[in-house]
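agent> Task received from the user: take the single chain below, predict its 3D structure, and emit structure tokens. No templates, no multimer pairing.
agent> Plan: (1) validate residues, (2) run structure prediction, (3) serialize to tokens, (4) report one or two observations.
agent> Step 1 OK, no nonstandard residues flagged.
tool_call: predict_structure(input=
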Amino acid sequence: MDIGGAAVPRAELAKVLPDIVRFEANLTDALAVESHMKQGDGVVPEFVTKWSEERLAEVITTLKELGSIREQLMRADRPETGSGGTA
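)
tool_result: status=success, residues=87
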């Protein structure tokens, strides 16, 4: 499954995500919001204002999960430095 720059097997995502079906359903929107925000210096795209509160909440949850998954992937790719953890 392409999570915007990284391919992760769906089965692996299903192990760590509380709701893989919701994640898949909102992934395209989450990636679109992320892309617009990167290009617009962090400004939330206008199209988001037209979404229902429920849809917005689901996309925000998906964005948070994407960030967490990417962070875990980066940590897995980095060798341990032994400098301790983060707060």
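agent> Step 4: summary for the user.
The first helix runs from residue 10 to 16.
agent> Done.
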